């Protein structure tokens, strides 16, 4: 729900900023919001521009932790509400487990109580710690050292919210003075970016750009806050009702310097976005194998490259057909298994993303069409134009075969997992016929069989298809079968037969007399 909300709430800079602020305030974790933002960018659900806005907002939203801890954690007696919340939540979890809504509320109540009970423990522990050690050894350290400490500890803890609670507790216990605590929070603002940096490792370029935007924003904001620390502290002191409470004053300081960063960066989101787009540029692997290496304006070399590309597409479609039928292509193309051995060896579902595989085939088709469009504009003779038409026919038939096969993948997987012996036997016969057809193409391309032999083999494949139709139809009389299973088997068999015919047309449209390559 949160992801859908973020996607629909980032249509403008203001909305992105507000989304980052509210979501972080609600989740109480800028790290969680940052990682979710990275994931949304990585799947192109939101743009880099919108992601930067969310990151800016998250830095403002995370200051809500300071206010919650400063007000509830230090201005009221914690045990007076923490233990009742834990008790009510625990009892509700025991007695109302059947109700999902009550369970969620109970968990929220328990978690809220435990959060502040933990804060109370931490506060008292730090008070004892402060009494037992000599703080004079820290007095001489420059403020920049506290910034560095804040950075390192937050990077290790991986939670600026947790570190903020620690700093507020330390200030309340007089372990550090106000300036030192403020410097720790400034360093924490840089340290929290390490979550995004780690989350972007191995990601797409936009994911790395968002992580860098987070670092740049937090680093520059921290530098500005440190340089103008005295000015910001003077602003805080002007709020008399807050200034007398150091913990509240520190929460206000935390909010002020993050708001200052947003005000400074907001006019430059577009500039930052354009700058980041110039970084982490990686060349995407080409979908095609040959045609992107030649200029279509040179028709002689272009036609050779196109012929090779069409051949590669045909081979890729055959491998796709094998995977759809849950037969590993390597068993056929590399290990050279025979028909019986290949089917018996491959009796489980092969996990692969058939939709992505099909999209790759479609992408190759589009690249070929673009290439041919340019090639058609060149001064070609009649024979070259005829060759182009023949090659395009092969491409269309190959892609059509892939489309038909893609649509039956779910049915094929159901047959694989079926415990019905009749279904499994018929399914294996359908696969054998598909593999038989593909072996014809492979032997033809390897020049093992001539055209006459291939024609004879295809005739047997057609006869097997007719026999399969009879077997599937008559299987309805078995008590193990029903109309739905029979119809599903008939449709699958027909789809495979039509795909085989399309592959046959594709192979006939172009002379495939050279070694197979992938």
In words, what does this structure look like?
The protein is mostly helical. 77% of the residues lie in helices and 0% in strands. It has helices at residues 2-8, 13-27, 30-42, 48-61, 64-75, 79-95, 100-132, 136-139, 143-157, 160-172, 178-191, 193-200, 205-227, 229-238, 240-243, 246-265, 269-276, 299-324, 329-333, 339-345, 354-376, 382-406, 409-417, 421-445, 451-474, 483-509. 38% of the residues are buried. The model is unreliable at 513-518 (pLDDT under 50).
Structure at a glance:
This protein is an all-alpha fold and 518 residues long.
Quaternary form = single chain
Helix share of residues? over 70%
What's the number of helices?
Answer: 26
How far the N terminus sits from the C terminus, by CA atoms, comes to 42 Å
Q: What ranges have pLDDT less than 50 throughout 5 or more consecutive residues?
A: 513-518
Q: Average pLDDT, to the nearest integer?
A: 84
Q: Cα-atom Rg, whole angstroms?
A: 34 Å
Q: How can the largest sheet be summarized?
A: none
Q: How many distinct beta strands? A: 0
The string of secondary-structure elements, in order, is HHHHHHHHHHHHHHHHHHHHHHHHHH
């Amino acid at each position: 729900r949160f992801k859908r909300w973020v996607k629909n709430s980032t249509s403008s800079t203001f909305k992105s900023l507000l989304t980052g602020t509210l979501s972080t305030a609600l989740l109480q974790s800028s790290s969680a919001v940052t990682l979710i933002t990275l994931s949304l960018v990585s799947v192109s659900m939101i743009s880099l521009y919108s992601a930067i806005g969310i990151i800016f907002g998250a830095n403002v939203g995370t200051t809500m932790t300071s206010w919650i801890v400063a007000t509830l954690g230090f201005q009221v007696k914690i045990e007076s509400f923490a233990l009742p919340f834990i008790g009510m939540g625990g009892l509700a979890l025991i007695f109302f487990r059947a109700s999902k809504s009550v369970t969620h509320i109970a968990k929220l109540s328990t978690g809220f109580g435990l959060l502040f009970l933990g804060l109370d423990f931490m506060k008292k522990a730090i008070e004892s710690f402060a009494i037992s050690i000599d703080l004079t050894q820290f007095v001489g350290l420059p403020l920049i050292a506290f910034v560095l400490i804040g950075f390192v500890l937050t990077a290790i803890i991986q939670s600026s919210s947790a570190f903020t609670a620690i700093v507020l507790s330390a200030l309340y216990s007089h372990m550090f003075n106000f300036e030192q605590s403020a410097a720790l929070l400034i360093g924490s603002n840089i340290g929290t970016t390490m979550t995004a940096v780690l989350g972007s490792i191995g990601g797409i370029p936009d994911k790395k750009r968002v992580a860098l935007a987070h670092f740049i924003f937090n680093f520059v904001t921290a530098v500005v806050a440190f340089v103008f620390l005295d000015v910001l502290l003077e602003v805080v002191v002007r709020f008399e009702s807050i200034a007398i409470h150091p913990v509240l004053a520190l929460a206000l300081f935390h909010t002020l310097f993050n708001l200052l960063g947003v005000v400074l960066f907001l006019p430059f989101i577009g500039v930052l976005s354009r700058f980041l787009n110039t970084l982490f540029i990686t060349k995407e692997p080409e979908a095609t194998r040959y045609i992107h290496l030649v200029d279509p304006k040179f028709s002689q070399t272009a036609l050779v490259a196109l012929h090779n590309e069409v051949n590669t597409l045909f081979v890729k479609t055959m491998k796709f057909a094998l995977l759809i039928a849950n037969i590993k292509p390597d068993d056929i193309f590399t290990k050279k298994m025979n028909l019986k051995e290949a089917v018996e060896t491959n009796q489980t579902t092969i996990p692969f993303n058939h939709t992505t595989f099909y999209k790759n085939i479609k992408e190759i088709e589009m690249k070929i069409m673009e290439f041919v469009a340019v090639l058609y504009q060149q001064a070609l003779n009649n024979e070259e134009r005829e060759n182009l038409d023949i090659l395009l026919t092969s491409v269309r038939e190959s892609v059509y075969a892939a489309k038909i096969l893609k649509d039956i993948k779910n049915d094929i997987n159901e047959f694989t997992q079926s415990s019905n012996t009749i279904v499994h036997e018929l399914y294996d016969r359908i696969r054998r016929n598909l593999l038989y057809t593909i072996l014809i193409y492979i032997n033809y391309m390897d020049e093992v069989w001539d055209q006459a032999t291939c024609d004879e083999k295809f005739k047997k494949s057609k006869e097997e298809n007719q026999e399969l139709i009879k077997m599937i139809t008559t299987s309805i009389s078995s008590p193990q079968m029903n109309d739905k299973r029979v119809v599903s088997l008939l449709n699958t068999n027909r789809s495979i037969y039509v795909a085989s015919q399309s592959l046959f047309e594709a192979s006939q449209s172009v002379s495939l007399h050279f070694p197979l390559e992938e």
